[in-house]
Amino acid sequence: MNRSSQDTGSRSIPEDRKLYVVDSINDLNRLNLCPAGSQQLFPLEEKIPDVGANSGNGSHSLFLLGLIIVLIVSLALVSFVIFLIVQTGNKMEDVSRRLAAEGKDIDDLKKINSIIVKRLNQLDSEEN
């Protein structure tokens, strides 16, 4: 029933934090960064990431996600506009060809009209 102050202090630290500190020390030993004779327990404040610092990462990831979505939508709109420009150019070429063909037809009709008018004038002059 009587607990030492060390036991109560270690029980106030959550289990996952204890494991995090032990894993970190083991990792250091594996990398030979910490000599075996001078192994020290690091204060928990240095080893455990701050919960408040991680909350900013969520807003950064949301910002990046929003930015990616905006860029994809912009790319889709630009692609659609380019498609419309190409289609409009094709339609304009078709209209230009038709106008050129109709212009030739109009010139042909003017020639035929002038021939008919000449012929009618000749017929009128022969009758008089």
Automatic annotation (TrEMBL):
Keywords of the record, alphabetical order, are: Membrane, Transmembrane, Transmembrane helix
Looking at the UniProt entry, the stretches that span the membrane are 62-86
- The superkingdom listed in its UniProt entry is Eukaryota
Q: Which InterPro entries match?
A: DUF4577 (IPR028099)
Pfam families noted in UniProt = DUF4577 (PF15145)
- Membrane keyword on record: yes
- Tell me the PANTHER family matching this sequence: LEUCINE-RICH SINGLE-PASS MEMBRANE PROTEIN 1
Supply the name of the protein: Leucine-rich single-pass membrane protein 1 isoform X2
Which species does this protein come from? Answer: Camelus ferus (Wild bactrian camel)
Q: Its gene?
A: LSMEM1
